[in-house]
Amino acid sequence: MVTMHPDLPPPALRLGFDPDALRSNWQALDRLSGRACAGAAVKADGYGVGVRQVVPVLHATGCRDFFVAHWSEVPDLLDFIAPGSVSVLHGPLTDGDVAFARVCGVKPVINSLEQARRWLAAGGGRCDLMVDTGINRLGLPMTDLGDECLRALEIDVLLSHLVSSEEDIDLNQIQCERWQQACAAIPHQRASLANSGGIALGSAFHGDLTRPGIALYGGVPRPEMAEVIRQVVHPQAAIMQVRDIPVGDTVGYNATFTATAAMRVGTIALGYADGYLRCWSGKGRFHVDGLELPVLGRVSMDMTVIDLSHAPHLGEGDWVTADYALPQASAATGLSQYELLTVLGRRFGR
Ligand SMILES: *Cc1c(COP(=O)(O)O)cnc(C)c1O
């Protein structure tokens, strides 16, 4: 639980969150998953969106399978959902992890024979199994599939993870075939392969459960999803100061913007320490009531200056919203859609 000082005023920046868009995205991804059900990757604080606001909405919409990376991410989820609905992707690295999983009732994702043995030695129980079909990162190697100890596991979801689902490369098909081989070799309840992008690769990739993450939160991994995915997150900040500057004056560190005419500018309470990174300098845009407010000069740690020429009525305490549609923001900055979300800092009210 976050404990707040009772007199703490609300912050001057907030993460506008659209629960309808999240709901609609999950429903669209569930529909695109065909016979399979969609789960949800909610690791890294729900991709930075805030797990405490994301999970209740997803659960109320019908989502029943939630994936986090670290054990430390479990307690927040258990305030909203049953432990049997939670899978921990990093798996049990230590006996402490195993003990925690058994006490809580969440599922470890077993990623190696070592993890399988560690889990079984403590008495085992329901778990998931990740098979590495080509990413060479985390998961049981295909060459270990014959090991006897795997027969003793009580596997709910047998999963694998795609290398490049947002692209059409041969490896997608190869991974799909290896995953099917693994499913044929190892008894399990449900099979799962597709992340967000994988959902668009067709029914052969769906199995029983899909695991979208980025697309739930407004990311568009493949162009064919652009029509159905809605923006979920809208970073907003309050104007702290307004000033009129004469032609020839510069704005911000290193004087990278020079006014070519007299103009009105506003300083907002959002900077790179909040995840509005310096790559937005001179190219970011904010808006209010359909009016465009370009970023002027460098983004600083706690502040950004915007052009108020088109909105001279704005003043101290008024709020503006960043242009932050993920596909466009990614194209503008070179940051991935994933990074754009997960960098958003802790000073945002969520
Ligand atoms: C993060 C993750 C996902 C979700 O991936 P997206 O590309 O965000 O849809 C699915 N499965 C695993 C194993 C993951 O680590």
Q: Structural class of the secondary elements?
A: alpha/beta
| Helical run tally | 10
Q: For the report, how would you describe the main beta sheet?
A: 8 strands, parallel
Percent range for β-strand residues: 15-25%
Number of strands: 19
Shape: elongated
| Helix-strand topology string | EHEEHHEHEHEHEEEHEHEEEEEEEEEHH
Runs in which pLDDT lies below 50 for 5 or more consecutive residues are none
Bound molecules: pyridoxal-5'-phosphate
Report the span from N to C terminus: 13 Å
Chain-wise SSE layout:
Blueprint: E1 13-17, H1 19-32, E2 37-38, E3 40-41, H2 43-47, H3 51-61, E4 66-68, H4 74-78, E5 86-88, H5 95-104, E6 107-110, H6 113-121, E7 126-132, E8 140-141, E9 154-159, H7 170-185, E10 190-192, H8 196-199, E11 209-210, E12 233-245, E13 250-251, E14 257-258, E15 263-268, E16 285-288, E17 291-296, E18 304-307, E19 319-322, H9 326-333, H10 337-342
Parallel strand pairs: 2-11, 3-4, 4-5, 5-6, 6-7, 7-8, 7-9, 9-10
Antiparallel strand pairs: 1-12, 12-15, 12-19, 13-14, 15-18, 16-17, 16-19, 17-18
Bound molecules: pyridoxal-5'-phosphate (PLP).
Explain the overall architecture.
- This protein is α/β, with parallel strands linked by helices.
- Helix content is 25%, strand content 23%.
- It has helices at 19-32, 43-47, 51-61, 74-78, 95-104, 113-121, 170-185, 196-199, 326-333, 337-342; strands at 13-17, 37-38, 40-41, 66-68, 86-88, 107-110, 126-132, 140-141, 154-159, 190-192, 209-210, 233-245, 250-251, 257-258, 263-268, 285-288, 291-296, 304-307, 319-322.
- The strands form four sheets. Strands 3, 4, 5, 6, 7, 8, 9 and 10 form an eight-stranded parallel β-sheet that branches. Strands 12-15-18-17-16-19 form a six-stranded antiparallel beta barrel.
- The longest helix has 16 residues, at 170-185.
- The chain is elongated.
- Pyridoxal-5'-phosphate (PLP) is lined by residues 41, 43, 89, 161, 195-196, 211-215.
- Pyridoxal-5'-phosphate is lined by residues 41, 43, 89, 161, 195-196, 211-215.
